[in-house]
Amino acid sequence: MREVLAAAHDWHLRRIPFGLATVVASSAGSITGPGDLLAVDPTGDVRGGIPAGCVESAVLDAAAETLRTGRARLARYPVGDDGPWPARPGCAGIIEVLLRRVTADHLTARSLAALAGPDPVAVATVVGGPAPFAAELILGRDRTEGTLGAADLDGWAADQAAELPAGAAVRRYGHRPGVRVLFQVAPAAPQMLLFGATAVAAALARIGADLGYRVVVCDPRPAFATVARMPDAHEVHRAWPHRMLAATPVTPDTVLCLLGHDPRYEIPLLRAALTTPAGYLAVLGSRATHEARLAHLRADGVPEAQLARLRAPAGLDLGGRRPVETALAIAAEVVAWRHGGTGRPLSGLTGPIHAARSSDLPAAAAR
Amino acid sequence: MREVLAAAHDWHLRRIPFGLATVVASSAGSITGPGDLLAVDPTGDVRGGIPAGCVESAVLDAAAETLRTGRARLARYPVGDDGPWPARPGCAGIIEVLLRRVTADHLTARSLAALAGPDPVAVATVVGGPAPFAAELILGRDRTEGTLGAADLDGWAADQAAELPAGAAVRRYGHRPGVRVLFQVAPAAPQMLLFGATAVAAALARIGADLGYRVVVCDPRPAFATVARMPDAHEVHRAWPHRMLAATPVTPDTVLCLLGHDPRYEIPLLRAALTTPAGYLAVLGSRATHEARLAHLRADGVPEAQLARLRAPAGLDLGGRRPVETALAIAAEVVAWRHGGTGRPLSGLTGPIHAARSSDLPAAAAR
Question: Which one of B213, B290, B321 makes the best mutation probe of the A interface by having the most chain A beta carbons within 10 Å?
Fold first, then answer.
């Protein structure tokens, strides 16, 4: 998704029009779902994809055709017994795709930019019923842009957007036949706060940014707290960690990791961190180091309930020890924390691979 | 490591000298060990790090000083009770660091480039005893470069390098006092073969390259098998996967993933893949899809022992469903496969976090 949005932004800046396919609905299992994007430029350069091999090429052809004709439409791809593609268990149903041409002055170019940005936003798009087809409404924190064609419909869309979880979903307004509206909802990017500008932090910043986090790295050492060392972080602070944390808003979505080994700030930082609502709070270091840390915090009067929140050592047991492997182990634990995963191999488990689509989208789903 | 090597290569190309600190030995727990690197350029730009917070700044100062003076030396940093840094459990011992100035025409610049490259190489460096201090010998597949100062020592080093596992270690030649030699051994980069140029493949290519894999993506669809879609892959092939696989050397280090959902090549590819020695062999898709796949392969006469090698669905159970999350789940399973990790949270386990340093280094440790 991020890759499509980045490409779209690049094409937008270069004023290159492109064809955009947006999945509106799918009854073909969890393979694809609302909000999945595929984009193609006039040279045939494709970004994103509809992760359903049997229809992806057909969607690409349709997106390229829409780029030529400019005619927005809703296409339906039957897969399985009813369609032209081989019937396969787990891949039978209908995929509905909205096809549009996006030009530099098109509202969709701005809605894609908004969905890619750090601020919360919702985009409502008419995909059927008695309203202008493909009409769009961008609902930002401070302003709205566009219209679905009628004030009551816009008001309803704003109410829906405020209530919908992150991700994409279709809602219907009115009765017989009603207007069908696709909602793409992107909340504010959650924060990943990394203390200690180490090699692990550099690797974790890269994966965290790919996961949709706004990554902030903080270290008091001037030589280490540099953008050159942390090229994928959104912010690099040269500051005392506990002071920087005191000036940073923390929410239950926040990921906070202590990756340094610097006793000069460790205890003050942890004491402050443990009073925040950060949802994932982890520290590196050996088990002996952690025992000493806990003893220190206990002596300072930190309650056991707070201490129990610390994940130590951070990460899943993957067994690697290089910085990139440690970062991967932490990122994997973060994803498992967000989605309730066990960390065990999927091949050794039974039951559904994913939770229901509408509820398991992470906070930064649309990024 | 990779980041230091990339920075060193960049400085080398721009003919910028830099100070290089290489950990030779450590008795301070698993926090740092032989082969860890820190580099600093004349502007104070630091790359890499000695992941031992208590000494990192001191090592940086020493590297910067060596850059000024040009005098190679071995520095010893006592940590814990005996040293100037605070005593902490799990962080007591001695860290030995080789400090050198590296200029564009310096042999070390070429040895760093060799360690960063895809081919197997070993670098031997004198760190003590009756031989020229910091003398280097690069032992490549087809050629050697440099000398440790004597033919018998060079011959011994070549024998050692052929036997040492990937990673870094110190060996002693001769008796009383003997020559101490640091060996940095990098095998050929293992391969990650990704079939299906999907969004999951793009995300996995990025993480796989960071993990030290040589990543190859293959898809028969011209619009999808493009470098633009797979910017982090080392090779992108537009070919029928089973044909491309037939022309590719596969070893027990090889990671092979089927990420597409294209029935046109899936069965021929899996039949071929199951006869290779690939160590990690995984497929995506629902459990129902996999049952149908197994039924097809069984009907084709593929033995159960081969079918049991397939990890399906690929990845650890992290619970996410976005392409980047699926890629992360697969990468985490790959690391756990290489190192014997369980995937369970480290904070819920007991015992050592890492296996012994010398044996747990992955095949691409030095990249």
Answer: B321
